[in-house]
Amino acid sequence: MAFGAVLIPLIGIVFLISWLVSGHTLAMSAIISVVTTLVIYVIFSIWLGLPVQ
Question: Which of 8, 36, 39, 44 lies 20 to 30 angstroms, CA to CA, from 29?
């Protein structure tokens, strides 16, 4: 449930911003959204120990 509550909508928002606003290709937008979400997960959940739910 942790991924569904915060991280999956975050992937979608970052993807749309990257694709529609920045003008990246679909593949590049997908890569950017996954990498950005993983970095956010690492910072908040692993490094700071906060629950990402």
Answer: 44
Longest dimension (CA), the chain: 35
Tokens describing residue 7: 């991280």
d(C-alpha 35, C-alpha 30), whole Å:
9
Q: How far, CA to CA in Å, does 46 sit from each of 4, 27, 41, 43?
A: 17, 27, 7, 6
Q: 39 — phi, psi (to 5°)? A: -65, -45
Within the chain, residue ranges assigned H as helices are 2, 8-16, 26-41
pTM: 0.78
Beta carbons of 53 and 41 less than 8 angstroms apart: no
